Amino acid sequence: MQTAGQRTGLSVRHRRLIRRIGVTAISVSITLLGLVALTFFIGRMLPLDPVIKIVGENATQEAYDKVYRELGLDQPLLHQFISYLSKAVTLDLGNALTSGRPVMEDIGRVFPATVELATVAMILGTGLGVPLGVISAMYANSWIDHTVRTLCLIGYSAPNFWLGLMGLMVFYAGLGWVSGPGRIGFVYEYSVETRTGFLLIDTAMTGNWEAFRNAVSHIVLPASILAFGGMTYISRMTRSFMAAQLSQEYVITARVKGLSWRRTVWRHAFRNIAVQVLTVVALSYAFLLEGAVLTETVFAWPGFGRYLTTALLAGDMNAVVGCTLIVGIIFVTINLICDVLYRVLDPRTR
């Protein structure tokens, strides 16, 4: 049977949890509101006329005025923003001027391609970045460490679009090891039965292995380019975390007791940085989802980044604001997940 003190303590913990959830919800709402407001008002101030994009430059003044009123552009700017927000709450982000379809429908159509590309890139980047960071810390100031750090410097310095162009020139045009731009060859494009929107999964589920191999040959190069950038960040952060752990007393104690260097690092030190590495990987994944714009443009990848680029060039602010809102939601969601995982997996944060 609980004492009065225990019941009081439980109540206090519940109140703290509710307060924390409330503060987080308010913070997220303000962040997303500010993001949408900033994008919306900047879009309205740009010297772009969405009406011209719809009716064309040779339209009559009457047709122009009619579309102008239908878009609500005759209303005060604040009224336009409030109207947009009221619809955005119900996930109505308006119609894209470039396609004529609802923005959410367009995003739902192109987003799986970006998720697939970013996921493959993240698997490659994490699989290489974490071991390289640990090994670099294990052999600090050796030729191995200098090689890894130089590789990371190149990854930070070289822009993705340049790496993409060089990759196409060498591995596609020169050596012929991979397929060219696009997500899948034209021959297989209409033979794939769409179930999930993820091409690798759909082709594997239906047993269309020729299309699967073709899709793999298309995704390997752009995913590797994206993975290179993610790998450098993950590697550098992992090295920093591991170097801090290797200077701790428990590492020296383990070595004095006769534990091998490799076993000390991977079994003891790495366990203490696993949560931090997980946070870095999760945030890197969010950056890959948002930062694939140039890579998708170079490789003609029909994903979220290319859709956003096309909308920007066409002055389609409905699509631009909608994409910005989706990117903001992704970042906020992944940050919240990282925060929760950090508290669950690391008792010290509690």
From TrEMBL:
GO MF terms, alphabetically ordered: dipeptide transmembrane transporter activity
The ABC transmembrane type-1 domain extends over 111-342
- Its predominant location is membrane
* Alphabetical UniProt keywords: Cell membrane, Membrane, Transmembrane, Transmembrane helix, Transport
Q: Where in the cell is it found?
A: Cell membrane
Entry-linked Pfam families: BPD_transp_1, BPD_transp_1_N
Q: Which SUPFAM superfamilies does this one have?
A: MetI-like
Does Transmembrane helix appear among the keywords? yes
Q: Which InterPro entries match?
A: BPD_transp_1_N, MetI-like, MetI-like_sf
Task: Indicate the transmembrane segments per the record.
Answer: 21-42, 117-140, 161-180, 215-234, 273-299, 319-342
Instruction: Give me the Gene Ontology terms describing cellular component.
Output: plasma membrane
Q: Which family does it belong to?
A: Belongs to the binding-protein-dependent transport system permease family.
Q: What name does the UniProt record give this protein?
A: ABC transporter permease
Q: Which organism is it from?
A: Falsigemmobacter intermedius
